[in-house]
Design goal:
- By secondary structure, the protein is mainly alpha-helical.
- It starts with 14 loop residues before the first helix and ends with a helix.
- A hairpin with a 3-residue loop joins strand 1 and strand 2.
- It is built from ten helices and two strands.
- The chain has a two-stranded antiparallel ribbon with strand order 1-2.
């Protein structure tokens, strides 16, 4: 199972943070299917951590609408509700362009290096060797790198949570989407604009990307 790269190399993470990121990405990528029960013991064993870090992670994931707990029934992965698409898109259409523009203005040399590395990954997005799962993980990686480059932790947190929810919808319909590689490849010009410091162009491209996502999903329904 390939993990989504979301943290700088060498960053020391707590056990709870490691558990949170791993479980989060399993939920986002639908490796834990919508509606599936969440078993703390199984998760702890698969991650090689104790139940306490898993329990802490699950508290955060409930707040992020990725899991839900029912009295006397237990904890489950949230269902993917297509009616949420419009609400999620409303948020992203406003905040994704803002994030792209801020990233273009604020990205450090390290941020630009990370984004340039992602750009090289994108160059092979259309390769037959790239399956849909790998493309989705690359999509998440690029979005999270741009959010991190804003250096606004509140904006980053908000957009990561909404991009996670959008990605679950994307994964649900992935078999019906005809041009997954093309959608992911759209990030190339966006990254180039951010790295070049062109805030206006980056914002325009980010807005078009979010609109294209919603159109593609609605066409697939």
């Amino acid at each position: 199972m390939r993990q989504v790269a979301t943290e700088p190399a060498g960053e020391e993470l707590s056990l709870a943070e490691r558990a949170y990121r791993a479980i989060r990405d399993r939920l986002v990528m639908l490796e834990i299917r919508p509606g599936a029960p969440i078993n703390e013991d199984q998760l702890a064993q698969s991650l090689g951590v104790g139940r306490t870090p898993v329990r802490e992670a699950l508290k955060r994931l409930q707040y992020e609408r990725l899991i839900t707990t029912y009295p006397r029934r237990g904890t489950f992965a949230t269902e993917v509700n297509i009616t949420d698409l419009a609400h999620i898109s409303e948020v992203r259409q406003e905040l994704e362009p803002l994030a792209a523009a801020l990233a273009a203005r604020r990205a450090t040399a390290a941020d630009r290096a990370t984004l340039t590395a992602a750009l090289r990954e994108l160059e092979g997005a259309g390769s037959p060797q790239r399956d849909a799962d790998e493309l989705m993980r690359l999509d998440l990686q690029v979005h999270r790198a741009i959010y991190a480059a804003t250096h606004n932790p509140y904006l980053e947190d908000t957009l990561v949570r909404h991009d996670n929810l959008a990605t679950r919808i994307w994964c649900l319909f992935i078999d019906r989407l005809s041009d997954m590689a093309g959608h992911v490849g759209e990030h190339g010009p966006l990254i180039e604009a951010v790295v070049a410091g062109d805030a206006e162009k980056a914002a325009q491209l980010a807005h078009s990307h979010v609109e294209g996502f919603e159109r593609a999903i609605r066409a697939a329904i």
